[in-house]
Amino acid sequence: VENYLQQVVDYYIECTRADNHAVREAACQCIAELAKKISSAALNPFVPTLLSTLIECFQDDSWPVRDMACVAAGSFIHSYPDQSKSSLPVLLPLFYQNLEDPISSVRQGAAIAIANVVRAYGNEILPDLISRITAAIENLKNQPEESEKYGNLETGPATYGVAKRIRDNDPDLHENQTMYSCGSLAPKMGRGGGGGGCSGGSKFKKASEPWELADGCVHLVGELANIKACESSMESLLTVIARAYTMKHYVNHISLFQTICTRILTICQSLDKRIFKSQLEQFFDLIFYCLESENGLASHAAEQCLQALATRLGPNILKGR
Would you report the helix, strand and coil content of the chain in percent, each value rounded to 5? Predict the structure, then answer.
């Protein structure tokens, strides 16, 4: 590949402009592999061009393309921090934008990419990240319960179940809806925001909600737990994440809690045991809330979390706590 790198790069860039969204996604994946597998000496001259191409792909109507472009850009920053630094003022806002995307896997991809930025630049970015994570969790108090048609019920655990059933059985949620193509919120998936240029943005993205940004931040904390340089910040970050349990007034809180259970599972496996044990107790109420919920995914995530905790800490220690 290195012998014909110019032709390979040109072809990958050409494929990011294909009409088929699956081809554009595959092209971003291939570009990401270049950052990981090709020697830096060979790829160095092409880094600015490839980063510019990935920035264009952030505006794609197809969320898998946006997701893969984000992950690929993070890989380039990690592998080529010096060459990528000039693109950081453009890329960081795009990463933050994906971190609050309505699509869960896009949020997860953004967390992976931002963690790679931390690996590349360390304390240059970490204080701002901690502030953003804290603000996102605190902003859950501004998350609407649901649309106004469900807003006349009192809040509380019992009433929440009634409101959820009313909402789930609302015919307007299930009838006469637009049929969308797989992998996009757009009936027709174009590249680059449907031809409107980079400033046009993706026309079909649903407006983000506070709980979605909080969810992305939980994924980000899970990724930061894998970075040794972030270890000293994890105690405060886990305390921030635990505050989410105090805000259960909105329908999708169970989805956020499911993410927290999933990430606690991975954090306990990667973080220093001493640090993790000191923060664990503040998550038990949330874990058991999910375990006892009617939501199968959340209940399963809580069960898996408890099993991982028993394996990591020992069943007797877990029972004692």
Answer: 75, 0, 25
| Residue linked to tokens 């737990």 | 225
Q: Contact 80/120 with Cβ under 8 angstroms?
A: no
* Torsion sign over Cα 183, 185, 190, 192: negative
Instruction: Work out the burial of residue 90: count CB atoms within 10 Å of its CB; fewer than 13 is exposed, 13-18 middle, 19 or more buried.
Output: middle
d(CA 111, CA 218): 9
Among 59, 89, 80, 313, smallest CA distance to 194 is for: 59
**Mean pLDDT of all residues belonging to the chain:** 84
Residue 184's DSSP bridge partners are 62
Q: Which residue has the tokens 């901690």?
A: 130
For residue 184, report the phi and psi dihedrals to the nearest 5 degrees.
-155, 155
Instruction: Kindly report the pTM of this predicted structure.
Output: 0.81
Radius of gyration of the CA atoms of the chain, in A: 21
The pLDDT > 90 percentage for the chain reads 63
Stretch 285-292: mean pLDDT: 94
- Encoded tokens for 276: 């993790």
